[in-house]
Amino acid sequence: MTVTATADLTQVRRRLEALVDPYRDRLEAASLYGVETLRRPGAKAHDWLVGLRNGPRYVAFYLMPIYADPTLLESVSPALRKHLTGKACFHFYTVDDALLEELAGLVARSFGREGLQVDPRAHAARRRMRDTTPRTDDPASRDALTVGGA
């Protein structure tokens, strides 16, 4: 499935948020300079791992482990690298399944280096639960970086 309408950034954001769902139970939500972040519990404000921010026509996805270890980007395809706008920030105007699958792999490798490996069975159970939970489009009623009320 490809999301093509730039006006539908809500769906782009939801799909990017879903990439970090497997790690939420071990991280805490925070915010820094308008970027909603996830960090280790008790970490200082600038010591965060992943963040999301809505831009005017894109969603910014920050993945800080690639800033600390640029070798994580060695296997990134030209299609994903095209979205990299800095050392650790990707801008997404649209997303497709292949691109998200590659980004999910990059997130997994990045978080694996941080000691945050995921049990795939636990993640699949959370995904099934999230997919059956009613959603709201009102961002004020959702916690930072929460997908599907999970």
Produce the secondary structure layout.
Elements: E1 2-3, H1 9-18, E2 28-32, E3 35-39, E4 48-54, E5 59-63, H2 65-68, H3 78-81, E6 89-92, E7 95-96, H4 97-113, H5 120-132
Antiparallel strand pairs: 1-7, 2-3, 3-4, 4-5, 5-6
Number of helices: 5
What is the residue-mean pLDDT, rounded to a whole number?
A: 76
Kindly, what is the distance between the CA atoms of the first and last residues, rounded to a whole number of angstroms? 23 Å
Structural class computed from helices and strand pairing: alpha+beta
Q: Helices and strands, in N-to-C order?
A: EHEEEEHHEEHH
Relative strand content? 15-25%
- If classified by CATH, what would the architecture be? Alpha-Beta Complex
Oligomer: single chain
User: Uncertain regions: pLDDT < 50 for 5+ in a row?
Assistant: 3-7, 118-150
Q: Main sheet, how many strands, which sense, barrel?
A: 5 strands, antiparallel
Q: If strands are numbered along the chain, what order do they take across the biggest sheet?
A: 2-3-4-5-6
User: Can you tell me the CATH class?
Assistant: Alpha Beta
Q: Percentage of helical residues? A: 25-40%
Backbone shape:
globular
Rounded to the nearest angstrom, the radius of gyration is 15 Å
CATH fold category name: Aspartate Aminotransferase, domain 1
Number of strands: 7
Total domain count: 1
